[in-house]
Amino acid sequence: MKLMIDIKSYFETNRNEILRQYFDFLRIPSISTGKTHSEECRQAASFVLERLKAMNCDTARLIETDGNPLVFGELNRNSTFPTVLIYGHYDVMPADITDGWNTDPFEPVLSDGVVFARGAEDNKGQVFFLLKTVEYLVENERLNCNIKWMIEGEEECGSSSLWAFLDSDADALRADICLVCDTDMIDIDTPAIVTSLRGAAIWDITVQGPRQDLHSGLYGGAVVNPVKELVRVLGSLFSTDGKVLLPGFYDEVRQYTPEERIEITQQPFDEEEIKKIAEVESLGGEVGFSALERIVIRPTLEITGISGGYTDEGLKAIVPSYAKAKVFARLVMDQNPSKIKDSLVQYFQKNLTKGVQFECEKEIGLSGYVCNTDSRFFTHMNEVSKQIFGKTPAQIREGGSIPVVAAFKEKLGMDSLLMGFGLRTDNIHGPNEHFSLENMVKGMETIAAFFQQI
Question: Are 340 and 366 in contact (CB under 8 A)?
Fold first, then answer.
């Protein structure tokens, strides 16, 4: 296929410049959790903006928000062409060499064709190859669709600025299909299209006790300890067989037929690999379901962090004044995040001992998403992938969430095509995140063919 040869030739001919740009992008510590790296997030947004300008977008601008800027662009080729919205994010998770990195996470290292750095794959690496692919197609007059870009800077912390934009200006993003390259392949030779995602809901829970920390010798046993209360009630939410005991939690969860469950197990999945990556001896969870089913079709309720009292070195004999926890639910289709929150609040109010106060604040709440596998764009991506890889993509369900995908469907009626080119072993969010240049080129070939032949 001529286009494949052109992309590979383009990459090799321009390898040094492509890697220079890619590394410049990765060097920016655009960490979105907290405000410490706000300026670096702006730098990363400006990097994306300059790439949009370089491909002569009709519109390319930063959209100012209460948080990190959004990057918006439009390439209008022909009014008869379909329009594709490309969504991605330039923000990354925190990283420090003391977390187990072999090298500085913000100084990219190329080793045996693999780039190691925070954001190498998630999502800077995949956003970058999309930018270079469209740039190539524009230069060679092979782009046969209109393109809109929405690259945000808060995906790793809830996308609050994008939510605000969708509430006021959603029509600006209206397109025939949204393309998201923020998922994984099965292996280097096997592409995958994600056909469903779980939703997510995050709540900040605070149990407030005395006005300030109190001496446990004077007040312990008389004043209610908020840390003990929080731990006790949280623990009561779970049974020993892995079920969530929150009333109503499973009410809207779909029950799959035996035939459907067998079909789900055909999805490539290796429990031994999961144990190896996690470095655990065994897996656990809801009894009656396989590990794969627990990840892709069952909801979970996770406690992602607890704080309160004194945990530093030495002794501090106190009754703590407060305790906090973050509770994170992965929700499946039809579960309502607001209903789950209401049940959680009622459960705490009923079960907490008198003498403490309770607050529950929602950070985010979104439903699950199921892809329309009958769309012409889905069919087209299958055909293109067969040209590039010699096989159609595996259709897989994922347990993770891409917050805006459900919002695009709800607000714009727009489906999303979820096809990324990373690997599960790329260690995104962890130390020594990496992305293979071979995967990058495969991604460029696939997306170039998709846009040229659409």
Answer: no
Q: Which residues pair with 87 in a beta bridge?
A: 150, 180
Tokens of 278: 């996690």
Q: Output the CATH code of domain 199-253+299-366.
A: 3.30.70.360
To the nearest 10°, the Cα dihedral for 440, 407, 371, 243?
100
Q: Where are the alpha helices (DSSP H) in 318-436?
A: 337-351, 376-389, 403-412
Tell me the three state secondary structure of residue 193: strand
pLDDT tens digit string along 81-136?
999 999 999 999 999 999 999 999 999 999 999 999 999 999 999 999 999 999 99
How far is the CA of 136 from the CAs of 181, 188, 217, 312, 384, in angstroms? 18, 23, 71, 54, 18
Range 154-168 average pLDDT: 90
User: Which residues make up the CATH 3.30.70.360 domain(s) of the chain?
Assistant: 199-253+299-366
414: left (phi over 0), alpha (psi -120 to 50) or beta: beta
Query: What are the residues facing 59 on neighbouring strands?
Result: 74
For domain 2-197+369-453, the CATH class is alpha beta
With beta carbons less than 8 A apart as the criterion, state whether 283 and 291 touch: yes
User: Which residues are CB-contacts of 18 (< 8 A; sequence separation ≥ 6)?
Assistant: 11, 132
The pLDDT assigned to 363 comes to 75
For the beta carbon of residue 359, count every other beta carbon within 10 angstroms: 14
Q: Cα angle vertex 197, ends 204, 74, to 5°? A: 95
Residues in the chain: 454
